[in-house]
Amino acid sequence: MQIRYEPVLLDAVVSALIQEREATGDLHFTHEYHALTDAAYRLDLAAREEAFQQIHRRLFRRWNLAAPIEAAFTEFPELREHIQTLWVVRAPGARDEGADLQFPGRTAAILRLLPRRFLDPLSLTRLLRHELTHLSDVLDPTFAYEHTEGIPGIHLAEEPLVRDRYRLLWDITIDSRLIQAGRETVAAEAQRRAEFEAQYRGVPAPLLEKAFRRTWDMPRPSHPQLLEMATEPGRALFEAWEGTIRSLPGSRCPLCRFPSRSFRQGSGEIPLPLVELIQCDFPEWQPELGACERCVEGYTVCQGTR
Ligand SMILES: [Zn+2]
Ligand SMILES: [Zn+2]
User: How far apart are CA 97 and CA 90, in angstroms?
Assistant: First the structure.
């Protein structure tokens, strides 16, 4: 595996390190930097740019800033073997940090990091371990990962919600596997539980805790399993509560079959004329089964025209 660093990232990391040390009164890095760059300032503009890039690369190596990245891959020999080129680039913001395999072929990977991440090797190591587990899962044939533009059977408007849930469920199983193996990762159990509770707000607490436990304790899931848990929370995540969980945000609407964020349920929330209208199309349907906001709206419009 060849590691390629983006010049703007190296520039930012070297500057950040110098600044951090200067703030503590340590000018060692500043002097070392100027000893190399003073000569470069005498070059013409085009040559200067190239000279600076070389200096940043040299200092990055000399100051051992790449060590956590190289060390992380020794924990994932299968990735080091499979990936031919790893591009390490600057993440625009904290939410953009992470690793991805490039499709098709998956022999190139991209790692997006904030420059300041390199100033804290321990947090960098934890992040890499978590991110490389994502990549390792994707490359494992038994994980059965499938790269698709959209999520089959999911309405475009619901896609971000399903993606967030898929990502969180996967993250939970990654951190639990790492912690059980005695390896430090980005989030502890309590933090993942809080995120899970926030994602499924409204679900009764005992049910929530049971589902979290099951997810935390499960052996490595496959991609289809995670997708099912994200798209069908009532059945695949909260189990056995089919009837009462129907109105859970993200469950599939029994009428249009699309997952929805907001449901109406019961005759209190769906007026009788509307119930009768819906039953013309779905004779088996009862108001207790609920309907998504979109369907209720649709039938309300129909009501005026029939
Ligand atoms: Zn993750
Ligand atoms: Zn619907």
Answer: 8
Cα of 165 to ligand 2 centre, how many Å?
20
Q: Is the dihedral of CA 180, 182, 187, 188 positive or negative?
A: positive
What does the pLDDT look like over 49-72, one tens digit per residue? Answer: 999 999 999 999 999 999 999 999
Residue 295 phi/psi, 5-degree rounding, is -65, -45
Ligand 1 centroid to residue 183 C-alpha, Å: 15
**Distance from the CA of 95 to the center of ligand 2, in angstroms?**
32
pLDDT digits (tens, 9 = 90+) for 130-146: 999 999 999 999 999 98
Q: Where are the alpha helices (DSSP H) in 181-271?
A: 189-199, 205-217, 223-231, 242-245
Give residue 117 CA to ligand 1 midpoint distance, Å: 16
Report pTM.
0.79
d(CA 101, CA 82): 11
Cβ atoms of 295 and 191 within 8 Å: the answer is no
Residues of the chain with pLDDT under 70: 157, 202, 239-250, 304-306
**Cα 274 to averaged position of ligand 2 atoms, centre (Å):** 14
Q: How far is the CA of 212 from the centre of ligand 2 (A)?
A: 27
